[in-house]
Design goal:
mainly alpha
Length: about 350
Amino acid sequence: MSVSAGARVQRRTSGLSDKVRKRIEITILSLPALIMFLGFVILPVFMAGYYGFFKWKGYGKPTVNGQFIGFENYKVILTDPNFQQALGHTLFVVVASLVIQGPLAILFALLLNQKFKGRALIRTLIFVPYVVSEVIVGTGWSLILQTTGALNALLKKIGLGGADWISDPKIAIWTLMFIISWKYIGFAVILMIAGMQSIPEDLYEAAKVDGAGFWRQQWSITLPLLGPTIRIWAFMSIIGSLQLFDLVYIIWGQYVSSTAGTSTMATYMVREGRLANNYGYGSAVAVVIFIISLVIALTYQRFVLNRDLEGALTDEKDAKRRAKRAAKEAAKLAKANGNAAAVANEVVSQ
């Protein structure tokens, strides 16, 4: 009895030490990332919120070299037609990116998920624009799309008139959408292909036996099972569109974006903050952008991503329940075997 009791105590002690050791390991491994997150994300947000209460040119302390104006910067932001225009352009980019890139990415992924010669090369070519720097992409397309650029020269040679792709407000926003889609659709295609390859082939074989055609299989099998991948991609696309800055700033410059109808919240922040030497106002714009992005992200997570999270938690709970049942059955079996062994020993001893 003493030996078994000592063994139980030792097992409990080792179990507790394993838990403590795992917690220490998790703390040590996550501490650098936590410090970076606090230092480069959370702290700047609070600093921007603090600076947003001042009329400040960016040097020295705002309490000394600036003027405390309270919520005046935020009032100006919310009533400024230029910010409202930039917000409208940003929301248009968010929706248009989902509507344009989503269906095209799924179609390309369906094509590239089939087996044919040259598939690897086409996958690489589609993904290449995504890894190219925004500076290179913006500079290259700005040269191509100039009124005297290569595109208009090609159109004139084939008998079609050119257009002002960058400065015309009726065309510029669609020019921006074309460049965004060209650059970022490769990432969406790779995600969709990865999601499609995780779907079991047995489902397609069973559908073929039932007489389902190719498109019917995609509608009834691929799209429903690709739902989590589509929702994750959509979330990343929304966040990226809300932060759009570099392509617009490079192609349309500092001030042309507002007249061409392609300004975003980020370009408005830089133009009215840093370029206008009004860093207090720019900080207030940054806070507004953060709040808008946070609200949209939390809303999307609450009503869209929670479906996948709840499903994962349900699967985890089911797995734990099955494990507990298996442990109980194993314990019962071991107890029954122990009783049977005791009975056999008594019979043998008699």
